[in-house]
What does this fold into?
Amino acid sequence: MSRPTDDDVPGVVSARTGQRWIPVMGLEVHCQLKTKTKLFSHAPYRFGAEPNTRTTPVCTGQPGALPVLNEAAVLLAVRAALALDATVATWSKFDRKNYFYCDLPKGFQITQFDQPYCSGGGVALPSGRIVRLTRIHLEEDAGKAIHDRGPDTLVDLNRAGVPLIEIVSEADITSAQEAFDYLTRLKETLQFAGASDCDMEKGSLRCDVNISVHRPGAKWGTKVELKNLNSFRNVMAAADFEILRQIEAYESGDSALFPVQETRTFDAGSGKTRSMRSKEDAHDYRYFPEPDLPPLHLSAELIDLQRRSLPESAPARRARYVGALGLSEYDAGVLTASPALAQWFEETADLAGSPKDAANWISNEVLRALSDPQIESKSLEDLRITPASLAELIGFVRAGKLNVPAGREVLRAMLTSGRHAAELIAELGLEQVSDEGQLEEWCQEALVGKDKVIADVLAGKDKAVGALVGPVMKASKGKANPQVVTEILLRLIRDGAPS
Amino acid sequence: MSHPNPIDAVETARAVAAGELSAEQVVTRALNAARDLGGRLNLFLSLDRERALDRARAVDSARAAGRALGPLAGVPVALKANMCAEGFESNCASRILAGYHAPYTATFVMRLLDAGAIPIGVTNMDEFAMGSSGENSAFGPAKNPWDEARTPGGSSSGAAGAVAAGIVPIALGSDTGGSVRQPAALCGILGLKPTYGRISRYGLIAFASSLDQVSPFARSVRDLELLLELLSGADPLDSTSLPLAPLGRSGEEGARLDGLRIGVPAQYMPAGLDPRVRTAIEASLATFESLGAKLVEVSLPHTDAAIPCYYVVATAEASSNLARFEGVRYGMRELGDGSLQGMMAATRAAGFGPEVKRRILLGTYVLSSGYYAAWYGQALKVRRLLRRDFDRAFEQCDVIAGPTSPTPAFRLGAKTADPVAMYLNDILTAPASLAGLPALSLPCGFAEESGTRLPLGLQLIAPPLEDARVLRAARAFESATDFHTQHPALFAS
It folds into this structure.
């Protein structure tokens, strides 16, 4: 595993000069671990809670209060590391990073400086190439300073002390698309390991990009840091903008315009980056070992136990869905969009006894319903159906009690009412009619005057009968079993023909 | 004016439990003395009269109802102003924390309360525990009950003075580099800095986290022993607190010390030592010999490096620990130029006294990029060497003995112009702090100066976790001498 050479990288060709430039990117991702309480206090965290209601004397930096490490956070951090193929250290320590800001209650952040709890690891891109990780370390989040509500700055310390892992990649990323792919795969890995929700909208995943460009084979350009990237799309847009900005700066030939070491912020409105602070403003963080916390010892047994209890990864699930369950690659991809969906699917498939039917009903009907404005539920969690109730419905359809269109109608009623399939089928009168006598009567009526269809069938074109199934379904008010109807129509035509 | 409370905590609790004294009586006397004598000597920063009396009456009614009483039921106790307890102003004798009331109670205060002790108020100190004379208090220096023109020592000045003046039988101080042992010596009482980690620091406002220890003052060894027993043990709120088995008995009154090897490091008895201190220590060593102990010469070769090492480690940690005082969430706020950085800077400029600022600057410097290795990194190495000195010395002896302070109490103002001279007060106490060892100061004699008797202290140091060993040696010494029974002339009737 190593960085691709400049020759292996497509790079970016300057529209102005036709020269090829090689972008180099390393990403720093901060990811909140989904623990019930904070990293160093028992304060419970929930996104969106009333400001300053999720705090203890520890998270508000009261004098005399001391940090106590949350073991649950350590276990999640270990799982994240193992899922990313990193090596977990049996000994690591915490350090203080000192700086003043109103959202940092102690005047320092507890983090891991020179001996983080793990090293190495990597993220496989869809292309198969692996982006190496430099390190992952455990640290506490800061609070939030709010500057846009009147003249005063407001401070909310609910987030202060929430456990984070910072995942630092090597400078192995060579395009905006790769940055996007890296983030997508990283997020998927952490979500399926159960370590984090990785929800950028709720701030549980945040990303900074270090970026430079150079000519093939030449020395790397000056590294610029991009911040305030609040979606994967913005990461891509900011990287694309910045690559072109840097190329243009170098191609101007004017060294006064060349990129300088600085932090730039991305404005999603204009799609541009602008300078936030220069290197001269960089803090001296005065790191030193945190005297209030003993070193972190993780036994080989504990690490191994976490490794063995790691949930199945998304790629492994996709392979299993295709290989063992017989789903299409496409469906396997759709159903592993999140661990919750994969879980939902697997439960439904088990209960329904048919993975394929479960996959079809979920990807065609349930997921579509989530974006239907007429259905209140917007996520799996608040759906009014469960895997068990969907499996029951699938069972009715598979048993021929209900045809597929009627099944869709029942599902819709289930989604809005939360009631069971059996009840709704009876109430809506949708039970499929398989009574041959009744069906034959409707079929006879449908055949009247359809000599063309009859002739076609008799000429061997069985498919022509399809034109008659519709009228029969209509006569049955949708309750006829279309397969049985087809069979009856064919039999009647053949029986009625002169031999 | 008579000595207000001549008996120790154990005797006070016994008398209350026996109904010979009411807790209300005892606490009322302590509160009045804290107001009058304490006021004259500037020992207390605030008193909590109503709550203390309520608690005292609760003890009396519990006794009347026949309920079991805690081992310190009805005993008044003084806290240091860097200790957090609901109801108290924990201002660290600093303007920046004036009016600060912690929203929680320290673990060690909870343990005192559980034992029935009654905190009556918080005592004066050097601002943020930085100092050796009490003169760095933002509220004026406390005075030594033996001579009001002199320092009671520091930084736990008021707590030491309150015990020496008989206002309370026991008090809690904090010892970072000698802040309990040195004032105990200068005030003629006992002070014990336990093994680092023995007493939870949760609720002690940090000066230097790797050195700070809550440390009791008393006038008898048995009181120290009881306090240590009550306050010791793991605390889920302090990750550096040690899970410990009970302390065990430190020895009976009048017990001998046969076979105990007492190490006397040459470095603790330097040529320039105050001859009165030397005489008292030599006499004390003779007393130990008469009790059956054996004197052994030991060496602590890196002692000279202890002060520089201490002032790097302690100031580095302090520069970080005191960063939280910036006017955002509590305490004082100065707006400055109105910007966020301006507010923080103005608050700190106005809120901290000169010694605190000096130490924050020192600590910031030694942690700065480019200087870290030469200063902080080097200090950590020296700290390991100091610990190794002790490890080697304890191969030859059981307890190390020497003076607690190089001089008796000095006059207020005598050293304020010279910070380095002031720092050298810690020369005999800082090494045990850096090594995390249990160390105790006990009264061992007096020096005459301008017609006043000034107490002197003997320091005993033991290996880690051997707190009971220094208590046992002190117990035997106490039985054989009467220094601890003598009170400041101020209170002779």
Q: What stands out?
A: The CA atoms of residues 366 and 411 of chain A lie 9 Å apart.
